[in-house]
């Protein structure tokens, strides 16, 4: 069992930046971020493979968000720039995907979520 602990959420104005962190208690094959806005599905944001650092992004965040990892700290980051009000959601860290990264049912481990709110 791998535990995932997110941090770094908060309130930011549109155009601002936030960095989310996800500390894992163990190593998995891949780590990712999803987000869920009120009344909506949990959607894929980004993922990164531990071994080679291959990244994938949702089209909606490409060129604005960057996922990275620190192997020594077993931590994954999501740098979010040029934030928009539509980025407002609870952001969840996920680990150990056994299928397509964009499908939430592919993932075995989840964090508790951290709220990101982007105001006008």
How would you name the oligomeric state of the polypeptide chains in this document? single chain
Q: What profile does the largest beta sheet have? A: 7 strands, mixed
Order of helices and strands: EEEEEEEEEEE
Radius of gyration: 13 Å
Q: What is the mean predicted local confidence, pLDDT?
A: 96
Label the overall shape: globular
How helix-rich are the residues, as a percent range? under 10%
| Helix/strand/pairing category | mainly beta
Would you kindly provide a written description of the structure presented here, covering whatever features stand out?
With 120 residues, the chain is mainly β. The chain contains no helices and 11 strands. β4 and β5 form a beta hairpin. It starts with a strand and ends with a strand. The mean pLDDT is 96.
Overview in brief:
The protein is mainly beta and 120 residues long. The chain contains no helices and eleven strands. Helices cover 0% and strands 53% of the residues.
What is this structure's SSE topology?
Blueprint: E1 4-7, E2 10-13, E3 18-24, E4 30-36, E5 42-49, E6 55-57, E7 65-70, E8 75-80, E9 89-97, E10 107-110, E11 114-119
Parallel strand pairs: 2-11
Antiparallel strand pairs: 1-3, 3-8, 4-5, 4-9, 5-6, 7-8, 9-10, 9-11
Question: Keywords, please?
Answer:
about 120 residues, mainly beta
């Amino acid at each position: 069992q791998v535990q995932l602990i997110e941090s770094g959420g908060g309130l930011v104005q549109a155009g601002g930046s936030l960095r989310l962190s996800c500390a894992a208690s163990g190593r998995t094959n891949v780590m990712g971020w999803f987000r869920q806005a009120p009344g909506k599905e949990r959607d894929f944001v980004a993922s990164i493979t531990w071994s080679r650092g291959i990244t994938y992004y949702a089209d909606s965040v490409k060129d604005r968000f960057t996922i990275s990892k620190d192997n020594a700290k077993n931590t994954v980051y999501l740098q979010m720039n040029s934030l928009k009000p539509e980025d407002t959601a609870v952001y969840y860290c996920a680990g150990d995907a056994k299928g397509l990264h964009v499908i939430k049912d592919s993932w075995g481990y989840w964090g508790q979520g951290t709220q990101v709110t982007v105001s006008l």
